[in-house]
Write a structure and sequence with these properties.
Layout: E1 2-6, E2 15-19, E3 26-28, E4 35-37, E5 59-60, H1 84-95, H2 114-118, H3 125-131, E6 142-150, E7 165-170, E8 173-177, E9 182-186, E10 190-196, H4 202-208, H5 212-215, E11 221-227, E12 233-240, H6 246-261, H7 277-293, H8 299-310
Parallel strand pairs: 3-5
Antiparallel strand pairs: 1-2, 3-4, 6-7, 6-12, 7-8, 8-9, 10-11, 11-12
Helix pairs in contact: 7-8
């Protein structure tokens, strides 16, 4: 039958459980190593008689059941990546406002699109265009806006935009802005507007791979040819967003183009070439075909430029 004693070492005094058959034998505390004689069952529980260390290996007494192990330190987990709507709810909770209040323009109170909320302007695209002074007070009523990216062609902005912006249609002008580009043009300076083919770039070009050739048949770009202040023609290209797929972006681009073409009657008239200009266009068409046959330009580029030259006849 087991009995319970304590280690006679005052600095240890650990509780020990030992069998009665070990009474009178030498033992050693497994905790502190102190040697002692195991007392009888009628001895007080406090301390057993201590023995001097003789150098002999004493009998180790079994120890009592160990207590619970200390809790392991909590592991640090990386912060959870939250979705756009998750961040919106968190911001609403901190400010004490409803999440729907973040979807309203701070100027006009109109409900903003997901792209306008994600841009963190706090305003809708039409109010933002007016706020940065891009359009004048006489720009007329707002008609339509769409998320878009700049793809080159503007006077003074030869490169492409890195971040998406907004294409906005007003009654008296069309404008586009992002974090770098600021452009507004009245309809009286626009020569023509049409859809253009998809231009893969950046990560999309890498992910598209061989399917990029098929995607180039999709026309999700809006090309606007206009007259700059010095009278030079430029063609600005905007890639339209707002859909889950590139073919879906083509439908969005058509919707934006239709709103622009509502004001086609106010477009500028192209300056006719002088006498003999037809021969010059014919020569340029012949040169264009030669470039296509040599593989210098693609078929899509050839068709787009050919259409542009034929419109000048």
């Amino acid at each position: 039958m087991p009995m319970f004693i304590r280690c006679p070492n005052p600095q240890c005094a650990k509780g020990l459980k030992i069998k009665e058959e070990h009474v009178g034998k030498k033992a050693k505390c497994p905790a502190c190593g102190h040697a002692f004689t195991v007392p009888g069952a009628d001895a007080p529980l406090a301390l057993a008689e201590s023995l001097p260390d003789t150098g002999r290996e004493p009998l180790s007494a079994p120890i009592s059941r160990p207590g619970p192990s200390p809790a392991a330190p909590e592991q640090e987990h990386p912060p959870e990546k939250k979705s756009f709507f998750g961040r919106l709810k968190e911001a609403a909770a901190k400010s004490g406002k409803r999440a729907s209040s973040f979807n309203k323009c701070s100027d006009c109170g109109a409900k903003m699109t997901m792209f306008e909320v994600a841009a963190k302007m706090g305003k809708c695209s039409r109010c933002a265009a007016k706020g940065i002074g891009l359009v004048r007070p006489d720009s007329g009523e707002f008609v339509f806006s769409q998320s878009a990216s700049y793809r080159g062609g503007l006077s003074g902005f030869p490169g492409q935009g890195k971040k998406a912006g907004f294409a906005v249609v007003f009654e008296n002008c069309f404008c586009f802005f992002d974090n770098q580009v600021r452009w507004a043009v009245p309809y009286e300076k626009i020569l023509r507007a049409d859809l253009d083919f998809f231009q893969p770039s950046g990560l999309r070009a890498v992910l598209a791979g061989t399917s990029a050739i098929m995607m180039q048949r999709v026309r999700n770009n809006v090309a606007i040819t206009y007259l700059a202040d010095e009278g030079t023609e430029y063609t600005a290209k905007l890639q339209i967003h707002g859909a889950l797929s590139i073919p879906g972006e083509e439908a969005k681009a058509s919707e934006l183009l239709n709103h622009i073409l509502r004001f086609k009657s106010r477009f500028a008239r192209a300056v006719h070439a002088p006498q003999g200009g037809g021969d010059d266009v014919a020569a340029r068409l012949e040169k264009l075909a030669d470039l296509k046959n040599k593989g210098i330009i693609t078929d899509a580029e050839y068709q787009a430029k050919r259409k542009d030259l034929l419109e000048r006849l």
